[in-house]
Amino acid sequence: MDLFETYRRRTSTSDALNRRAQDLFPGGICHNLRRFDPYPFFATGAEGAHLADADGNRYLDLWMGHYALILGHGFPGVRDAVVRALEGGWHWGVPSEAQVKLAETLRRAVPVLERMRLCTTGTEATMYAVRLARGFTRRPWILKAEGGWHGASTDLSFSVKAPFRGAEGPGLLPAREQGVATIQFNDVDGTARVLAGLRGDVAGIIVEPMIGSGGFVSARPEYLGYLREACDREKAVLIFDEIITGFRFRYGTLADAYGVRPDLTTLGKIVGGGLALGVYGGRADILAAADPLTSRGADRPVLVGGGTFSCNPLTLAAAQATLDALEAGGDGLYQELDARGQRVRRAVEDAFERAGWPAVCTGRGSLFMTHLLRGDDRTLDSPGDIAAKTHVRAKDRELRLALLNRGVFAVHGGGALSAAHGDEEEAFLLDAYERAARDLAGLDLGP
Ligand SMILES: Cc1ncc(COP(=O)(O)O)c(C=O)c1O
Known about the structure:
Blueprint: H1 3-10, H2 12-22, E1 43-47, E2 50-53, E3 58-61, H3 64-67, H4 76-86, H5 97-109, E4 115-119, H6 122-137, E5 141-145, H7 175-178, E6 180-183, H8 188-197, E7 202-207, E8 210-211, E9 217-218, H9 221-234, E10 237-241, H10 254-258, E11 264-267, E12 278-282, H11 284-288, H12 313-354, E13 359-362, E14 367-372, H13 383-389, H14 398-405, E15 408-409, E16 415-416, H15 423-439
Parallel strand pairs: 3-15, 5-6, 5-7, 7-10, 10-11
Antiparallel strand pairs: 1-2, 2-3, 4-12, 8-9, 11-12, 13-14, 14-16
Helix pairs in contact: 1-14, 4-12, 5-12, 12-15, 14-15
Bound molecules: pyridoxal-5'-phosphate.
């Protein structure tokens, strides 16, 4: 039976829900990434490393809420903290000690966050970081990497998907009018050329130290070093978007592991503990430009913030409980996650090799993404490489369905392991990949 037919047979209730959803939401979803062919399964609950759907299927979850849940679904410490916070009412709209304590905790772990603001999404965090860079430098241009996803803000919805040509769709101004130029990740010479072309007009550069949805490709240390030097020379603001990478590989940021100091950092996902939190912050002098007290007078402050639900007490409780658990878990927790991730990446590549599909598993620590190669070239150094050398569509189509039919929910051919993914889950996962790789035999995987 073919992959689609098998999936349809297992998910008839989701099929019906999808029809209702399509009558309500464009595409039937509220986040484009949640849509896949023939239709997504509709969830009813989650626990530990598993998601349940409306047809009673149970999936080993590798998506883990857009990579947010490093401790697993329903982690007791977070659940208890949120339930306790609920007793005090769930939306105050005024400052609280909890927000001070959370920011102090964040700054201890990420010392470059000299000053910060808390918001409710990663999209807001990157949008405000970019505005701060422009407001602080009084310059127009922002450089972003091809394939870099920083949320769908008007500022940054450019060159996200291959073939990386400008605006991601109608409704956005051309990149030039928006003041956005793109650079190729890990390409020092190309980045230098773009900077030279805009000399004196660059407000900042925003990159992920490991490009996330663009392919889980880590920055080469010399590339980040170059970006730091170039921003110092140009007096531009270096922004590291650590919304995926923050607290994923260590208790802190990936930048600190590289030893490169950004001017601004954005966080989200893990730090919210599964509730809605974004963080942006960094150098005190840059954040001072947004201070409504010190920048009174002729000069108006950079407008950042707003957000009816910012510093919501439930979010603060979930975030604090998550950071406390990660700090208590210490290096051991991350070492275990890293070791499991390393084993999984190697075993998945081997499984595809045996099935006759050469594949490369990118990622680091507990993150992995499987790329099915179109030829022999295994160098995947940027989203451009991935677009040129791999079957991009198949990983979220044939491979996704093959894995779902075997009880694993993967996005982009992989995902995020959590502390709830133990030995049993690892064995189940590897068995599912072994079978899914064989299920792809003889299929045309397209571009
Ligand atoms: C690196 C990065 N930045 C920003 C965002 C946007 O975050 P949010 O979806 O919370 O708005 C994402 C989301 O996937 C991301 O991966």
